[in-house]
UniProtKB/TrEMBL annotation:
Record GO biological process: thymine catabolic process; uracil catabolic process
Alphabetical list of PANTHER family matching this protein: DIHYDROPYRIMIDINE DEHYDROGENASE [NADP(+)]
Organism: Candidatus Methanofastidiosum methylothiophilum
Gene Ontology CC terms, in alphabetical order: cytoplasm
EC number(s) from the headed UniProt entry: 1.3.1.14
Family named by the database record: Belongs to the dihydropyrimidine dehydrogenase family.
EC category: oxidoreductase
Domain 4Fe-4S ferredoxin-type per the UniProt entry, residue ranges: 331-360, 362-391
Subunit structure comment from the entry: Heterotetramer of 2 PyrK and 2 PyrD type B subunits.
Protein name (record): Dihydroorotate dehydrogenase B (NAD(+)), catalytic subunit
Involved pathway(s): Pyrimidine metabolism; UMP biosynthesis via de novo pathway; orotate from (S)-dihydroorotate (NAD(+) route): step 1/1
Length: 393
């Protein structure tokens, strides 16, 4: 029987698809509704002992042809402190009883290691099955919190150690992509005692500028600031970083731009043991997950996978140094003339961005002497009707 259950850091999840720590997990009711819609659980919005306030507004969408593609936020961690969360944990414990949903609590402290240990112990006492350490928010107003820690390799190790030694449940450290070498920071977290890591948190950006006023976006009444970027735009960054971590043999919960069941499989194939998403749930609601579990099950049946463990990490051995790629095969473009709508985007792209080899796509007229097989025409084709085929001698 094919099923979607996974064991991650020794904890059983009915589905590997979790909500990540963000507004969709701002309280237990949100997490409960997400589980009822099909999520395998939700990581609580990051809990601390300190009170934070959020700027209003605090989100800025980035659109491409009117479709949301990325989002910058300048939001902090939970505006509710630990004491407020105690009653929410009671609801999460009930959810564990009725639905078997593990409790994953995200926490944050500053550079005081005792505070990390105390908070980790406190959420463990509230029933947390996994504790996620947020050392990765890139825009905390307390500049000695969040990514300040995650960008410091030894400090990340120390924080992981302080929390891991204080509790008996597994700890995973949530890493920032705003670093040069995420794998070495993941290794340090694990050396400190984390059972695994979660990656990625948001990418530090400036999402735009209002050219009428010169104000940065998001525009908080004339001022703004750099903030965390999320959504489909960051998925390639997330996939690369999860791959870098997973190939060190480190357990990782993959995050960044997931908005379809295919994206879930991409993250698992590059080595994630579970996945998490936030932005897609903010844009489209929890029902976005409806059908994903079923689609993944069907995919697994069609491709002969008995469990997600069978496909986990299958891409890792296929990632290699570029000098080891095949430089021998000569390829060229081949157009399916039936499906070509003669929009000629391939002609323009090839003329100005490549070698001017695409002559008349409607007649599959390609200058084979000039075509270097770069694939630009295939990439820009809105009909997906160009293939790259191997040149025969
Ligand atoms: C509005 C917003 C608030 C967030 N707050 C938190 C947080 O409190 N703690 C945390 O660890 N990550 C936080 N994140 C980061 C997300 O959990 C996630 O790592 C990131 O958004 C990338 O995933 P996505 O592209 O699916 O949104 C937040 C993200 C957004 C968009």
């Amino acid at each position: 029987m094919v099923d979607l259950g996974v064991e991650f850091l020794g904890v059983e999840f009915k589905s590997p698809i979790l909500l990540s720590s963000a507004p969709p997990t701002l309280d237990a009711d949100h997490i409960k509704r997400a589980v009822e819609a099909g999520f395998g659980g939700g990581v609580t919005k990051t809990i601390s002992y300190r009170q934070f306030h959020d700027p209003k507004p605090r989100f800025q969408g980035v659109k491409i042809r009117n479709r949301l593609f990325g989002m910058q936020n300048i939001e902090h961690i939970s505006t509710y402190v630990f004491d407020w969360w105690i009653k929410e944990f009671k609801i999460l414990r009930d959810l564990k009883k009725t639905h078997g949903t593990p409790i994953v609590a995200s926490i944050m402290a500053g550079t005081d290691l005792d505070e990390w240990a105390k908070l980790a112990k406190a959420v463990e006492e509230q029933g947390a099955d996994i504790i996620e350490l947020n050392v990765s928010c890139p825009h905390m107003s307390d500049s000695a919190m969040g990514a300040f820690i995650g960008q410091d390799c030894p400090l990340t190790g120390e924080v992981s150690k302080a929390a891991a030694e204080a509790v008996s449940v597994p700890v995973m450290t949530k890493l920032t992509p705003n670093v040069t070498d995420i794998a070495s920071i993941a290794k340090e977290a694990v050396k400190g005692g984390a059972k695994g890591v979660a990656a990625i948190n948001t990418v530090l950006v400036l999402s735009g500028i209002d050219i009428n006023t010169g104000n940065p976006l998001p525009d908080v009444w004339g001022k703004g600031g750099f903030g965390g970027y999320s959504g489909p735009a960051v998925r390639p960054i997330g996939l690369r970083m999860v791959g870098e971590i997973a190939r060190q043999g480190i357990s990782v919960s993959g995050i960044g731009g997931i908005e379809s069941w295919e994206n879930v499989l991409e993250y698992m194939m590059i080595g994630a043991g579970t996945v998490q998403l936030a932005t897609a749930a903010m844009w489209y609601g929890f029902d976005i997950v409806k059908g994903w579990n079923e689609n993944i099950l069907n995919f697994m049946k069609e491709h002969g996978y008995d469990s997600l463990a069978d496909l986990k990490g299958i891409t890792i051995p296929k990632i290699t140094e570029l000098e080891k790629l095949d430089y021998i095969k000569e390829v060229y473009s081949d157009v399916d003339t039936e499906r070509c709508i003669d929009c000629r985007r391939c002609v323009t792209a090839c003329r100005d961005g490549a070698t001017n080899a695409m002559k008349n796509p409607k007649l599959n007229d390609v200058d084979y002497e000039k075509c270097v097989g770069c694939g630009l025409c295939k990439m820009v084709c809105p009909q997906d009707c160009i293939s790259m085929i191997i040149k025969k001698d």
